[in-house]
Amino acid sequence: MAAEGINIGADIHARLTALGQLPDDAFPLGEAALLLAASREPGLNTGPYERHLGRLADEVAELAGQTKGADIPPVRAQRDALVEVIARRYGYGGNESVFDDLDAANLARVIDTRRGLPVSLGIIYMDVCERLGWSMTGIDFPGRFVVRLSLGADRMILDLFEGAKELHPPDLRVMLKTMAGAEAELDPRFLQEMPARRVILRLEDNIRVRQMQAGDLAAAADTLQGMLLIAPDVGHLWREAGLLNARLDRIANAVAALENYLKCEPGQENGYEASKLLQELRARLN
């Protein structure tokens, strides 16, 4: 996409682009979230935040008794060490006010304030687990981001927004009905793991939606650009970028985005509509 109206610095742009080429199993959650925060705040030094995440991991490892060469501790011990350090010692958590706060989806500001959305807190916990070789993954549960902590067949689902409360099937059923209505029932697809890249896209989409609701379309377009740098093969994001840039009269950007959409998702239901708009926009460029 062309850079009209976009202010992501060249170095951050290059680093985000490099992350976009990594496979999902090598995608670094914390680094990606901090780079995206820096893309919105020129001059932000991510170093102190990266060192803070490293310090959290060191303290969790010490508390869990995980020394070099030692076996990974059981899931219960992992959970207890994570909660003691991240939630209690450092005070990370959430409250209802964060759902109206853009900073609650900005990892740098979350580290500053210790308050974040469920997905922001999830990135903190998952980054720490990644550094320690522990397995924590996001779960694509309707309406609330939760995580699964596992070691072999031993696993638990945690609600990090509620102090890493362990969720059992009855708890999940109540959460689902609250979000989706009394007739909703648990389905295996609601417990599917999210690749790390999708976790970051979910974080950024929280920002994009709030920017759109506030009428700040230019900021929403910038957020979409960052999302596309780390996920260049996600077709629907190119379509959203094309439509949004067309509304902003950034015609060259809109044309490039819609062309990429049609390459990524040929023959999709919205393809005819996108092709028609693309023709109209190309005519305006000539």
Structural class: alpha+beta
Number of strands: 5
User: What fold name goes in the CATH topology slot of the largest domain?
Assistant: C8orf32 fold
Shape by Cα distribution: globular
Strand order of the largest sheet: 4-3-2-1-5
Fold and architecture overview:
By secondary structure, the protein is of the alpha+beta class. It folds into 2 domains: 28-194, C8orf32 fold (Roll), CATH 3.10.620; 197-286, Tetratricopeptide repeat domain (Serine Threonine Protein Phosphatase 5, Tetratricopeptide repeat, Alpha Horseshoe), CATH 1.25.40.10. Helix content is 57%, strand content 8%. It contains 12 helices and 5 strands. It has helices at 10-20, 29-40, 47-64, 75-89, 107-113, 118-132, 169-180, 196-213, 217-230, 235-247, 251-264, 271-285; strands at 135-139, 146-151, 154-159, 165-167, 193-194. Strands 4-3-2-1-5 form a 5-stranded antiparallel β-sheet. A hairpin with a 5-residue loop joins strand 3 and strand 4 (165-167). The two termini are 18 Å apart. Mean pLDDT is 91; it is low at 1-6.
